[in-house]
Amino acid sequence: MGGATKASAGPRTQEPWTVLARRVGQSEDFRASAIRELRSRKNLSNELRKGLRSADRPLALEVISALNVRSLVPDMISLVPSDDEGFLILGLNSMMDSSNRESILATYRLQLQPENLSRVSPGAVVAILEPFGRLGIRLPRGSASNLEKHKTPEVRGALLYYARLMALRHQNFDYADVVERMTRASEYQLRLQAQSIERELNASRTLVRR
Prior knowledge:
By secondary structure, the chain is an all-alpha fold. It contains 13 helices and no strands. The radius of gyration is 23 Å and the shape is elongated.
């Protein structure tokens, strides 16, 4: 008498992409396995596109960065105005190349326009100033003055670092007066930062004159 045939196991249920995304930030073994599974998902781009527009945005950004999903850069650019923490902009900064640089920077310039700046989160402003200084890009007219008066010390500190990069890396001293005024900032840490940068700028000017 033949025994009952054991039912064969069905196909393994695919885990939600968000579960795999959380493993990307874990140990190397977990990360490597999660990345392999994420790459095999046929609908991953659409899942990440939806994730960028939901509370899962941090997880979507983690996966986009880990897998270098450049096809979603246009989606990220369109969402820059809604970046409340600056994480999306940091992701864009890391994916910036010759093919998308102008589109990204044009969006950043729009955010820094004086009429828009009050609606941009401090974290987003700090993230935007980094590539502007690194690449030697001038701020929109009137933006430096508004940033200098910004209520958030981290933004004013980022402006100081921007002025430093413009002067020392790109030999553009147009923002040296910002540094000089901020040597008298009410915050002790900002005063120290501005005084240190002012000494660097003065030394650089002396070398240029020789």
